[in-house]
Amino acid sequence: MTHCCEMMRSNVESTCEQHPDRYACPDALVDYWPKSRTYGLMIHDGGPSMIVIAYCPWCGVKLPERAD
């Protein structure tokens, strides 16, 4: 997958040795769900919740439309 910028790529692909589940890691900020082409800000509430975003928080490019 090609993301809009290096900051988005590094955030979406980040891993943590202490937290195998990205949603358990407080340093994980953005997630990408490839099936729906959805980017979102992760909500660390114990589950895989996120707030869908339409623009990259780093470079400002418009992100792909959601594919349902």
Unreliable spans: none
Taking the alpha carbons of the first and last residues, their distance comes to 18 Å
Question: What Rg do the Cα atoms give?
Answer: 12 Å
Give the structural class: alpha+beta
Average pLDDT score: 92
What string, H for helix and E for strand, traces the elements in order? HEEE
For the largest sheet, list the strands in their spatial order: 1-2-3
Question: Which range best describes the helical content: under 10%, 10-25%, 25-40%, 40-55%, 55-70% or over 70%?
Answer: 10-25%
Oligomer: single chain
**Shape category:** globular
Strand content: 15-25%
Count of extended strands: 3
Report the major sheet: 3 strands, antiparallel
Estimate nothing, just give the exact number of structural domains: 1
Number of helices: 1
Write the layout of secondary structure elements.
Elements: H1 6-12, E1 30-33, E2 38-43, E3 49-52
Antiparallel strand pairs: 1-2, 2-3
Q: What are the key terms here?
A:
68 residues, alpha+beta, 10% helix
Question: How would you characterize this protein structure?
Answer:
The structure is a single chain. This protein is α+β, with helices and mostly antiparallel strands and 68 residues long. It has one domain. A three-stranded antiparallel sheet has the order 1-2-3. A hairpin with a 5-residue loop joins β2 and β3. The relative contact order is 0.24. The model has no long low-confidence stretch (mean pLDDT 92).
In short:
The chain is an alpha+beta fold and 68 residues long. Helix content is 10%, strand content 21%.
